[in-house]
Design brief:
By secondary structure, chain A is an alpha/beta fold. Helices cover 34% and strands 25% of the residues of chain A. Classes of the chains: A alpha/beta, B mainly alpha.
């Protein structure tokens, strides 16, 4: 059997804030080209995991590798090299208020030295991929709806044709129809770019649509991981309670506050 | 012994804040002198800090100069020393009132604005977004404001000096009956290079303090709208206190030895 080519590996990652342990020996492997969705309740460490991957937070122990390169304790130059491979869609899009739509999308390109005119053309093309026309390119984020902001954020995430894309709660705050449109756009854009993706969400409809593999985080660890079509037969009480949104079960409300 | 615990906690928290501030200052200075630079953003900040602060600084300076002349006249006329008014006005304005009042006014305008802007960017994940877009937040957000603050404050204070002296001139000539050319000649003869230069050095230091406090509190804000509001308040209060504190220290350095 051929050895799996892992794009991202997190092994034994431990992160705590004061006495509160958020990641407790966290393990997750993502193969190249795979789309993995991590599900879990609020406050169980999904965002912390993502911030550790992005280098915004540094874990106390454990190993995180991207393309077999250790990124825990990596130099600033090394971190920049890793970040060049990454695109990110933030939960509330995190668009820069002071910049127009096209400047937001082209920001990463210009930071890498792409001339302004060329970056603008690429931004327009990427916005078109997300269903936004030329009429929005000179608008500013405060004049966009929530759904449009997500689309601009998605265009920004894919603007540099990254090898890896992270999606943080991509459908949060959107109505079900707009949420589904964003899900379709994510699937479409990922197919276009061929990127490896990691999504964190608690929206099961979104998870089923986007994911090749779903993993559930609880109490700082991955408690179940498997192909999307096997989640309903996971045999894991925590997973079953979460995906069916039941109050009764092993997950206590106090644990996810 | 329990009463010692809060004292210890406060001491540790204070020392931790000092440590964070020193590290933040070091990183900011390092990124301010090492490329890449962002000239468009530096220029934008220079306009924001320098040009748009001119009206408030100018108004403050002219009224400070006017009231200084008026009060000096009230006091000096008691022992027939009215002729010293031009000297007192120019010395007070260039050495103290120009830089300090401009510093306090700009800190209210700029430290608050920087803290609110960076704080909002922090709580809406825009700062994190910069990192993922291969852009160092210190280079992109902090360094341009540092450079603009240190560069523009001396220019602002130089303008404030001129307007402040003009305020004293207007009151002295048109209200107190001084001879216009004598007033200007006295002012010119009395003022020394060091008086103006010390004020401009103070201004540069105050520009550094204002942008440092704005950036530091904004960059470390958390907790949503309330956190941003708190950061804004802390930035203005700490910048104002540090300006007054460093004003004394710089005055000691410049003038304690030779008056």
């Amino acid at each position: 059997m051929a050895e799996t080519d892992f794009k991202i590996r997190m092994q034994g990652v431990h992160k705590q804030f004061g006495p509160k342990v958020v990641l407790d020996g966290f393990n997750l492997d993502i193969a190249t080209g795979e789309s993995v969705v991590v599900i879990g309740g609020s406050g169980v460490g999904k965002s912390v995991m993502l911030k550790c991957l992005l280098g915004i937070l540094t874990p106390e122990s454990g190993s995180i590798t991207i393309d077999d390169e250790e990124i825990v304790g990596i130099s600033a130059a090394g971190r920049d090299r890793i970040n060049d491979k990454i695109g990110m869609l933030f939960q509330m899009a995190a668009l820069f208020d002071s910049q127009s739509v096209w400047e937001n999308v082209a920001f990463g390109l210009m930071a890498r030295g792409t001339p302004r005119n060329q970056a603008r053309d690429i931004a327009v093309a990427k916005l078109a991929l997300t269903g936004l026309g030329s009429e929005v390119i000179d608008l500013y984020p405060d004049s966009l709806s929530g759904g449009m902001k997500k689309r601009v954020g998605l265009a920004r995430a894919i603007a540099t044709d990254p090898e890896i894309i992270f999606f943080d709660e991509p459908t949060t705050g959107l109505d079900p129809i707009m949420g589904d449109i964003i899900n379709d756009l994510i699937v479409h854009c990922v197919e276009e770019t061929g990127a490896t993706t990691l999504t964190i969400t608690h929206d099961m409809q979104s998870a089923r649509k986007i994911a090749d593999k779903i993993a559930m985080i609880y109490d700082g660890k991955i408690i179940w991981a498997g192909p999307t079509d096997e989640i309903d037969q996971s045999g894991n009480d925590f997973v079953q309670q979460f995906i069916h949104g039941q109050i009764d079960g092993p997950i206590q409300a106090t644990a996810v506050v | 012994m329990n009463f010692l615990q809060p004292i210890g906690n406060v001491t540790f928290a204070f020392l931790a804040t000092i440590g964070r501030l020193v590290l933040f200052t070091g990183r900011s200075l390092m990124h301010s002198v090492r490329p890449p630079f962002y000239p468009r953003i530096i220029l934008k900040q220079m306009i924001e800090i320098g040009y748009f602060s001119l009206p408030v600084v100018g108004l403050t300076a002219i009224f400070a100069g006017m009231v200084l002349a008026l009060q000096s006249f009230t006091g000096f006329s008691r022992f027939s020393a009215e002729s010293a008014i031009p000297n007192v006005v120019v010395l007070s304005i260039t050495r103290e009132l120009g830089p300090v009042l401009a510093g306090l006014m700009v800190s209210g305008r700029i430290a608050a604005s920087i803290a609110a802007e960076l704080g909002t960017m922090r709580v809406t994940e825009q700062v994190d977004a910069l990192t993922t877009l291969s852009t160092n937040p210190f280079k992109y957000l902090v360094a341009p404001r540092f450079i603009a603050g240190v560069a523009m404050m001396p220019i602002l204070v130089f303008v404030a000096d001129i307007i402040g002296v003009l305020g004293g001139y207007v009151v002295s000539v048109y209200k107190l009956g001084f001879n216009a050319s004598n007033y200007l000649q006295n002012t010119y003869d009395f003022v020394e290079f060091m008086d103006v230069f010390s004020g401009l050095v103070k201004a540069a230091v105050f520009g550094f303090i204002i942008t440092l406090m704005g950036c530091y509190h904004g960059y470390h804000s958390k907790g949503g709208a309330q956190g941003v509001g708190q950061a804004t308040t802390n930035a203005v209060v700490s910048a104002s206190i540090l300006i007054l504190c460093f004003n004394y220290i710089l005055t000691e350095i410049f003038f304690a030895a030779n008056g």
